[in-house]
Amino acid sequence: MRLVRFGDRGLERPGILDAGGVMRDLSEIVPDWNPSTLSNAVLRQIAALDPVSLPVVSGRHRLGVPVAGIPKFLAIGLNYADLAQAMGRELPSEPVFFTKAISCLAGPDDPIVLPRGSTHTDWEVELGVVIGTRARYVDETDALSHVAGYCLVNDLSEREYQNNRGGTWDKGKGCDTFGPTGPWLVTRDELNDPQDVDLWLEVNGVRWQDGHTRTMIFPVAKLISYLSEFMTLEPGDLIATGTPPGFGAAAKPPVFLRDSDQVRLGSAKLGTQQHLVEAWRAA
């Protein structure tokens, strides 16, 4: 299944895409796609429905983050072997993880707003994993059973904040609009192998990233098991699993986003995002 949330920011309603890609309204059946409705029982209930019996969502609507009320936004760094090779870096012995602020979440077609005075905002297309059932000290062989579904994430980063402003990476990762997510959540019954997902990203029509999750150093099951050693993973938690080669800071010379740039990213299995980059302007 492909689960969506549509409508103006803060007023999104839950929906589903049928086999023909037509959006159907689920708001009479579930109040929203949120941590309480990502359970196996609810997803089985929705899977048993005939989508044709649901109301069609007519017209064009903004798509929001496919899950409301995400409790934690966790992210993984340097998780692709081809990226480490391209950067001349040794493979990490354990996953590198950090957090992104929940307030950075944005819809799949919302504008990317550069922070005030930013000169080093960069892109990173990633596979996102949404937890469906609580996970604590889970074994790698059981880890994927805790997944509700998968989605596309752009882990935007202000590299000067991240690398030159002291402390951890978090201050360069959590700026407003720096976590576009969606367009939809693909449930694990439809995407049963997260290591078989293509990922690509373009800026102004130029292809910068063209990767595949099979080159991950730590596969999704390992990441979930590993993170569950340090914290309880709750329903709705979002994990961005790292990016393949081709982000702007690694170019020679480096390339960063500017006002009016167009960013497109996608996957054959996860859908497509499209963003206009905007300079920060006082309200």
Architecture, CATH level 2? Answer: Alpha-Beta Complex
Give the % helix: 10-25%
CA-based gyration radius = 18 Å
The CATH topology, please?
Answer: Fumarylacetoacetate hydrolase, domain 2
User: Which stretches of 5+ consecutive residues score pLDDT under 50?
Assistant: none
Distance between the termini: 39 Å
Largest sheet: 9 strands, mixed
Q: Strand order, main sheet: write it out.
A: 3-2-1-13-10-9-16-4-5
Can you tag this structure with a few keywords?
single chain; alpha+beta; Fumarylacetoacetate hydrolase, domain 2; nine-stranded mixed β-sheet; five-stranded mixed β-sheet
Put the structure in a nutshell:
12% of the residues lie in helices and 28% in strands. With 283 residues, the chain is an alpha+beta fold. Strands 3-2-1-13-10-9-16-4-5 form a nine-stranded mixed β-sheet, with no helix packed on it. The chain has a five-stranded mixed β-sheet with strand order 7-18-17-14-15, with no helix packed on it. A two-stranded parallel sheet has the order 6-12.
